[in-house]
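Re: your question about Adenosine deaminase

S., sorry for the slow reply, the queue was backed up all week. Below is exactly what I fed in.
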Amino acid sequence: MSSVNGDQPANYYNQGGPPDPISYLRRLSNGEDQYLQQRTDSADDDDEYFLNESDGDQKPPAAKRRKSTKSSPTEEPPARERPQPGQAWPHRENLSFTRSLIFYGTGAVTHEHERACKNIVECRQLRQKYFGSEGSKIANPDVLQESDLRFVLGEDGVMEVYQASDVGRKNNLSTVPNVEEFSKDYHRMVEMVNEGFMRSYCFQRLQLLSSAFRTHVTMNGPTESLEQGNLLGTDFYRTMKIDNHIHAAGAPSAKQFVSFVRNKLEKENDTIVSKDGKTLGQVFKEAGLDKDHLTIDAFNVLADYSVYQRFDNFNAKYSPFRMADMRRIFLKSTNFNGGRYFAELLKIVLNRHETSKGHVSGVEMRLSIYGMEREEWFELADWMLKDWGGDFPGTMISPSNRWMIQVPRLWRIFRMKPGKDGSGFNEMLENIFTPMFEATLYPDKHPKLAEALKHIVGFDSVDDEGAAEESCNCQRPHLWTTPKNPAYWWQLYFLWANLEVLNSLRKARGLNTIAFRPHAGETGNPMNLACTYMLCESIAHGINLDMQVSLQYLYYLDQVGLSTSPLSNNFLFRKMADSPFLKFFRRGLNITLSTDDPLLFHMSDDPLLEEYSVARATFDLSMTDMMEIARNSVLQSGFEEDFKEKYLGKDYRKGVTFCDEQLTHVPLIRAKFRAEHLAIEHMFCALIAAGKGKAVLQEMKTQFGLARDAHRNVLFDNFEEVPLFPEQGQL
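Result:
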């Protein structure tokens, strides 16, 4: 193809480019009406829009010269994205599928809708202020790279960083909004999402998204399956899936755990396992146990009816035979033998992922830091980096696993420790974060912890959300001395704030950053999800979003990750028949499947595959659905960029349509459907919030009339003599 004016490519657009995929939301600059575009399976039509190759003359844009859709060339909406003005139009894959659009009429946009959309815009701005770091003030990265920086936990409960020369600590190099400001913003968020007009608008939009998905599957399901079948070289079993939410202590299956304990009792009966010199055999003998008791039923670790709505009974299931000693010996990284049994047990679990046994998968296991003592971090780093030998030699660093740290909300336990009567919450924060800051600023001082932090990708906050909490009035942490647990939002703020400062240092120094990905919305107050919406990249669970449609719509708009565990929920808080998983998935939330605690909830040695299998049967998922869920798990994960590019495609960050369908096994049709509807929701909300709703509605009505007439003409033009049928005059 020849070029225009000798220096611009032939596929160059200088006046707006091809028809917009959501053209009914926009007005052409020249005021002319643009007819709806018919589909084509040929990309060759593109050339007809621009040039007459024989003389190189540039033709007017198609939108300007089109007189009739019948004689004009057609253009499918772009498969991925349209170019910026002045940029070349890239190669476009052939993509044709059936779309359904809503043509709005009188009453579709009301004053209440405008108020709701303004609230949505404000809510999204609050998320950008905190999660997007727009409210944080970070010094020049060059300053944060200096070797003589100092830090201290300020009275606000957030780490402050200073240059060594700043003796008076007047210039904090990394600041975040304080707890008073966050409290004000959080309560403003709660107020907005509970407004009746906002709940009505969000419910309407979510219902339309559900309807759009059902229509899409009805019309395009067979085509998606055909397209998926043409993606050769991969399938569900050979496509990467990440278990984003799994607790290390619950990672082995009950079968693996029982087999492991039986093996140790046979081979290491005389191994000393406690400070008082007792051997493993003696511990079992004193408990009245022998090899005959080593059965899954006797271990009593599998969840049953007793754990439903009972978090205390659920926690007790981690102790085989209801004996705390058994948990300490086998499922702890800090004990008399240095956590060797725990390491060896997890090595068995990790080996399945490393060898792709059954299918290709990875995990993000969670280890606990309680904040009771600062030494916890150093002991954990030693455990992670020790070569454990045995059947699976090496450290606990695995190419198929990235570690996460979970911080249980156990202030009430900390406060009960001897000598802690007058202690404030600030002591717990110092125990959690001081070692991390020291290892980041002075890696030579704590080399093992500095190395371990490189393999930690996320921070979690865990505990029973339904437990009683004390209301907070923006108290500083050092003033919180009551033995009662502070509010969920208050605790999460201080975890986020200190992580935000830590990440500013780590990013400036070229180190990995640590995402905030807590448990939220499993039970308890649905407004906990307002807090995590403001602060977090993704969350574990989130099923309480079905109780709050405003937050559900916000999570959709910003594609906040949800790592849900329907089997876990089934035993603990929400029966499978009542699970909102399918509803969330159909509407387009960024949702995936995870296992939570295979030790308690799963029967097989491949719990992630079990989770997918049960979900497929329960929710009647297609293989395209399954692959979309698997792709979301990789997107939500904390694995490095090169890993994600390997399994998603090098341009995945541009959006789901740029994920390589040959790698993800998600047909481009499904990705395009999701991307178009997300774009439409953002555009529609922004226009209404800007007060342009009625004007846009009027134009939509005009466009609907044109489209209706065009469709009618196509129907009648294809008959020499139109047969009679009822209501013919209504066309």
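The longest helix spans residues 196-229. Confidence is low (pLDDT under 50) at residues 1-73.

Happy to talk it through on Thursday.
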